[in-house]
Amino acid sequence: MRYKEHIEQEESLYLPDLPKLINPDLDEIISLSSEIKSSVENFSQKNLKAASFNLFNKLEKQIKVISLPIQFWQTPSETLKNEVGDELDYYSLLCSSLIALGCVLSKIFILNAEGKNTIVVYYEHENEVLMFKHETEPKTFKNKELFFKYLIENIKTETIAYEFNDKIYRDITLPLSSS
User: Where does the pLDDT of residue 9 fall: very low under 50, low under 70, confident under 90, or very high at 90 and above?
Assistant: First the structure.
């Protein structure tokens, strides 16, 4: 805590800089994705969904997600090596690993509503949207509209949402839930 102010000033990231957190080309991430690919018989795009579930389950067991009063912005390799990180560190590792696995459209999605962030990783594959959220089972949606509807179903205030991966950052406007 003695260096909190210095770290927060020197290590800060702005929202459009968030893609820098995703790096599927790191040796440790490539190694992890190779391990998952080799554990799936006859790995191909056809069984990418099963492989991504295996990856998620492995990270759920291996990585401890903690809440800290300070943001360190660990790289995905550091989170994997340390086996601990905050939510954004965890999701950066998951997204980087999914991209390395072959889910190249994987993105971190952050929804800020009612003063609280909801963070998930999702990707679109074979006309489905697959969503991964820490400490929950992966969910599959028939389309992106249903995915968004699920995320905002009980929110009655203005929301701020954005998504990113290693290539893009995008602000998203979501309609408020009518329920």
Answer: very low
What own/partner pairs with CB < 8 Å and gap ≥ 24 does 81-86 have?
81/28
Hunting for tokens 């990270």 — which residue is that? 59
What's the whole-model pTM score?
0.88
Alpha-carbon dihedral angle through residues 127, 129, 130, 133, given to the nearest 10 degrees = 180
Instruction: Report the alpha-carbon distance of residue 31 to residue 58 in Å, rounded.
Output: 14
Phi, psi at 5, each rounded to 5°: -60, -45
Would you say the C-alpha torsion 8, 9, 14, 17 has a positive or negative sign?
negative
Strands 128-132 and 139-141: antiparallel
Arithmetic mean of pLDDT, 45-55 = 94
pLDDT single digits (tens) 107-156: 999 998 877 889 999 999 999 999 999 999 999 999 999 999 999 887 77
